[in-house]
């Protein structure tokens, strides 16, 4: 998508929307469009202003909201998972009767079915993360290797000052920081998908819930037969946009068991093996190509490499020459 209000800053990059210092009515429209059916109110007299920047990566929405003046955000029932990370100032959150006053050291979370009450104390800024219910629950199912009984019981609030949750919050801020860069790698579908999966799995590993202990326990290695199925799938279609969850599904194991099986039997991760297979196919293609009729970029794209510079770097590390040198020598 490409949306903006006139005169509202830089031209937005694909997958982003910018709204700069708009009134409550306009902010209500964008929050309802990208987040949840929600009402925005202004308890104090005077005009409140809201700034909004949003990036969407499939089932993941990350937005940066700024508030000048007090605004309340109320939803009767949440239809997805939602995490608010205050950046400056404070926000009063209420979930099922429990009140939390959160600042930059604390995140607040809501689950599908939860009523929502948020009152940012302006001037303030926050990052709001929406994750579609099916996506987070499917990610947990893939990681565990068995169905779950949802919704996932995310805590009402969690500490962002240390541990995995601190790392997760930095990943969220990275996505926000990439908003203004139209050529950012996050807009490459392959990179964006991996980042989205990292945000989902990172949240599941960072906060307490009833599956957390099972999730962080040492994984059992997948059996050789399961690993062989994955190897066959990769070798048959190395250009296919596999995710690690896709490969775990082929193996019939959890993601963690697949990763442990690859580590034990092959000494690498499934995605590293996939990259090496793609590099080998690209090498074969370049060696047998006619330089007049084929480009390095076309070969990189053919074998699933979204970023030409990263492809060239990985290729040189593997074969000791650049892709263009291999192509020239094939003449």
TrEMBL record:
Secretion signal span: none
GO MF annotation, one: DNA-binding transcription factor activity
Record flagged with keyword DNA-binding: yes
Domain HTH araC/xylS-type: 228-329
Sorted UniProt keywords: Activator, DNA-binding, Transcription, Transcription regulation
Transmembrane segments: none
Stored Gene3D superfamilies: Homeodomain-like (1.10.10.60)
One Pfam family per UniProt: AraC_binding_2
UniProt name for this protein: AraC-type DNA-binding protein
Organism phylogeny: Bacteria, Bacillati, Actinomycetota, Actinomycetes, Micromonosporales
């Amino acid at each position: 998508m490409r949306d903006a209000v006139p005169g509202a800053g830089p031209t937005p990059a694909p997958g982003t929307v910018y709204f700069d210092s708009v009134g409550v009515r306009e902010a209500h429209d964008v929050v309802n469009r990208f987040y949840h059916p929600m009402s925005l109110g202004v308890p104090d007299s005077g005009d409140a202003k809201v700034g909004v920047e949003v990036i969407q990566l499939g089932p993941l929405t990350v937005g940066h909201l700024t508030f000048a003046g007090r605004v309340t955000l109320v939803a009767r029932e949440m239809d997805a998972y939602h995490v608010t990370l205050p950046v400056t100032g404070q926000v009063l959150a209420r979930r099922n009767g429990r009140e939390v006053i959160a600042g930059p050291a604390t995140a607040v979370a809501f689950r599908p079915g939860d009523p929502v009450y948020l009152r940012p104390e302006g001037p303030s800024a926050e990052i709001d993360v929406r994750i579609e219910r099916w996506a987070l629950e499917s990610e947990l199912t893939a990681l565990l290797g068995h169905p779950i009984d949802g919704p996932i019981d995310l805590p009402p609030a969690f500490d962002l000052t240390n541990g995995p949750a601190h790392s997760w919050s930095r990943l969220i801020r990275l996505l926000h920081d990439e908003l203004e860069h139209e050529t950012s790698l996050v807009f490459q579908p392959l990179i964006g998908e991996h980042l989205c999966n990292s945000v989902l799995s990172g949240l599941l590993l960072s906060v307490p819930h009833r599956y957390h202990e099972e999730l962080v326990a040492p994984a059992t290695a997948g059996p050789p037969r399961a690993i062989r199925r994955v190897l066959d799938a990769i070798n048959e279609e190395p250009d296919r946009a596999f995710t690690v969850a896709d490969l775990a599904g082929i193996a019939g194991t959890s993601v963690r068991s697949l990763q442990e099986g690859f580590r034990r039997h092959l000494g690498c991760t499934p995605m590293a093996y996939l990259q090496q297979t793609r590099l080998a196919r690209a090498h074969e293609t370049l060696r047998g190509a006619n330089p007049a009729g084929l480009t390095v970029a076309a070969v990189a794209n053919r074998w699933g490499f979204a970023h030409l510079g990263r492809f060239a770097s990985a290729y040189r590390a593997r074969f000791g020459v650049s892709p263009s040198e291999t192509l020239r020598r094939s003449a």
